[in-house]
Amino acid sequence: MTPAVFLFGIACALIIPDVESDTLVCPTHVTGKKEGSVFITCAYSTITKANKYSRKYFCQEGGRYGMCKAVITSTSGYVHNNYIGRASIEDIKNEGLIIIQLSDLKTTDEGPYICGLGTDVNGIKAVFTVSVTEDSVIPIEAKLIYGQLRGAVNFQCEFGDQPAAQRKYLCKIEKTGCKNIIDSSGAIDTAYHGRILLQGDEGPATFTVKMIQLRSEDSGMFVCGVGNYGVEGDTIDFDLRINEDTDIPQGSRSLSTRLNGSVSAQCNYNPKNNYTLKFWCKWEDSVCNPLINTDGYVKDVFEGRLIIHDEPTNGTMQVLMNQITKKDEGWYWCVMTDGKHDQTSTVQIKISEGNPEGLSGGKTMYLKKGETAKIPCSYPCRYKSFEKYWCKWNNNNCKYVTTNADDDDNGLSVSCETQELVLTIESISQKDNGWYWCGVKKSGRYGETIAVQVIVEEATRDVSDNRLRVKSLDANVTPPPSIGDNKHNTLVAAIVSVCAAVLVVAVVLITIRLRRKKNSDIVSVGSYRTDISMTDLDNVIGKDNPAVIDTQETDISHSKDGAKIKKKGSQEDLDYSSFLIHHNGSPNEENNA
Predict the structure, then answer these.
(1) Distance (Å, rounded) from C-alpha 289 to C-alpha 280?
(2) Helix, strand or coil for residue 408?
(3) How far apart are CA 378 and CA 400, in angstroms?
C-alpha cells in the first residue's frame, strides 16, 4: 500500500494532555534501521462517524513547554521541514485505519510520537516510541490487532516452510507464562469454547486463528507459533486491543429446549452493511461446518428441519431449527459476510428435561391422492395470544399456506379449548408432497416450530405388515413377488431348463435313428429351437407379468416435490467462523416467540 505524501507546509504546534484513549490505538513500539523506513498503523472506531472525517495528525513529543512538534497532518497537507519527502500519512476511513510512513530514518528521529484525531487538546490520541538501529537484524514487534466488543478478529500466523507435523498453537501471555488458548491437537481453553477456530491455510506452517464474540478480558498479548512455546519453533507476537464502543447488541449465549423440540435464534446485524451471504454453522472439532445459507444450500440431514428468516431492512436474521436430537447439542455460529468482512457470533444449544411441553403433532403422514387431508398441530394455552401458522418448507424459505385469521374456511381451529391448529388440504396431489411446519410468532419474532412430512401416494397400505403395496397399472396383474417367491421361481426355472435339455437330446437321438431307416419318413427338427437359454426362460417369465412395478422403499428424509433439486450455496469448508445470536430467553417461554 503506497501512502499519500502531502507536500504543503505551515507551522503549527499542538499541546497534548497526558491522557490516552483506547478509541484510537497504535503499536507501543516500532524499530527501524538507520536510513531505512518504518510503517505505523493505528486504528480508530468507525462507529462514531465524526472520527472518519476528523483531522488526523502525527507529531513528535519533546518540544518546549510540553508541546508536540507537528510532523504531518491529513487535512491541510502540512509537513514539517525536517520531514519533507520522508513522512506521509494515509487515512483509510472505511476501515478506520491511519497508516504513517517515516523513511530515511536518522538517529534524531528516535523518541516518543503521537498519532491523534481532532484539532486541539480535546482530540483523541495514542502514544508510541520509534527506535533507530544500525544492526542488520531488526527485532519483530508485536502486531497490533484492534477488535470491537462482541466482534471478531483473525490472527494470521505465517512461518514459511516449517514441518507440517509440528504443533500449531495460540497462547496468551500471563504472569505465570503463556497460557494455551488453542492448538492443532484440539485442546481449547474453556473460556474460549465455542468461539475460536484454528484453520490451516496454504503452507504447512501457515494457519489462521479466528476469535469471535470478543470480551473486554480478551485484550492482551498473544503468541502464535509452531512447536512448543519457549522451547522450540518460531513465534509471532500480537497485541490485541478491544474497542468497547460497539454497535453489536448483546444477546443470550444459550438456548434451551427439550428432545424433539425446537429453537429460535436471532442474529442481529447492521442493516447498512451490505452482507451478501449469511449462514448458520455448527462449531465442532475446531471447524464450523455450514448447515444452511441464504443462497439456498441446506445440508441433507437438515432438510425439512432448518430455515433462515432474513429481514435486511431491520438487520435481523432468525434461525429456526426443530426435531432437536441429542446430537444437536453444542455451539453454533451465525455468520454474515460480504466476502471481505464478516460479523460472526455464537450461541450454545442445550437439551433440558425441565422444558414445558409445547407444539405437538405427527412426524410423517401418508395420504392418498385425491383425498382431503387434515393435519393437526396441538398447542398449549400459553400460546393462545400468539400468531399460529402453517407453512410449506423449501431450501430458501417456509411459505405460509395458512394463518390463524378469523376465517373458518382456512381449516384452522385456534380456541384454547380445542388447543389445535388444523391444516386442511382439499384434493391432495403429488405437488403437495413435502415438509409442512406448524409454528408460533409474536411481535415479528418467530418461536417454536414442529415439522410434519406429507407423502402423497397412489397406493394402499397393508396395516398387518405396514408395507406399502403399489397399485398395478392392470388390475389383473399379480403384485411383484417377495424374496421367498423369487427363490421358488428360480427353482422352477432350473427344473424347466433341465427338462428342456433332456427333451432336445431325446429328439436328436430319435432323429438319428430315423435317418438310418431307408424306408422311413424323414423327421425335421429344424422347427425346434435347440438354443434354449436361461435368458429365453426369463423373457417368458417376464411376459407373464408385463406391468409389474418394482416395490420401492420411501425415503422419508429426502422426499420432496418431484425430483430433488440440486442445492446451490456456499462450500462445506469455511474460513469464516463466528456468530452471535441475540436471544431474549428460552424459545419455550411465553414472552419469547
Answers:
(1) 9
(2) helix
(3) 18
Residues 6+ apart with CB under 8 A from 39: 30, 99, 100, 101
Q: Are 138 and 26 in contact (CB under 8 A)?
A: no
Residue type, 326: K
Residue 440 burial (C-beta neighbours within 10 Å; 0-12, 13-18, 19+): buried
DSSP-assigned letters across all residues of 417-463: TTTEEEEEESS--GGG-EEEEEEEEETTEEEEEEEEEEEEESEEEET
CB-count exposure of residue 590 (10 Å: 0-12, 13-18, 19+)? middle
Contact 401, 423 (CB under 8 A): yes
CATH class of 254-351: mainly beta
Name the pTM for this structure. 0.67
Domain 13-133: CATH class, spelled out:
mainly beta
Mean pLDDT, rounded, for 146-168: 84
CA-closest candidate to residue 565, choices 296, 243, 175: 296
Q: How far is residue 57 CA from its own chain's centroid?
A: 42
Which residue type, as a one-letter code, is found at position 484?
G
- Using the predicted structure, report yes or no on whether residue 475 has a pLDDT greater than 70: no
Instruction: Report the CATH architecture of 143-243.
Output: Sandwich (2.60)
Helix (H, G, I), strand (E, B) or coil at 409: helix
Q: What is the sign of the dihedral through the CA atoms of 17, 21, 26 and 28? A: positive
Give me the residue spans of the domains in the chain. Answer: 13-133, 143-243, 254-351
* Predicted confidence (pLDDT) per residue in 342-360, tens digit: 889 899 999 988 777 889 9
Could you report the per-residue pLDDT of 354-382, keeping only the tens digit for each?
A: 777 889 998 899 999 999 999 999 988 88
